[in-house]
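WARN retry 2 of 3 for item q-0093 after timeout on previous attempt; input resubmitted unchanged.
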Amino acid sequence: MDCPQPGQMKFTFEGDAPHPSRLPVGDIVGVTAVLLTCSYKDSQEFLRVGYYVNVEYDTPELNENPPATPQIERLSRHVLAEKPRVTKFQIDWDDLPAGATVDENANPNLAAQASAEGLLQKGSQLQDRQDLMSHANLAEAAQNF
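OK item q-0093 returned
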């Protein structure tokens, strides 16, 4: 998606559910997350919005005693849209000459400004993703459904 000018954007994202045959059977029912990521020049992720999703059966009886093999036609998905997890990452916005590196210690005010803006340090994307999908965070999200 190209952005004609800086500022806030609003859009509706719609997508098909994943095909059940491509998921491990133990991951079909329960709480998981959907991640939307924004990258600069296709390589630097600077924004991630995560939504917790609960997939459960359409009746209390099936939720209390789920079948060994999931009954896909009886499942419903609930997205916790009112509580998105928004994460911002520091990146290099400007093009650097080939071979050039950024000295992150050159301006100590940049780290303070990034912290004040709630930005996570550059390169922490994998750690944040693992935190989002941790057992503790998924269990906590399950309490909101």
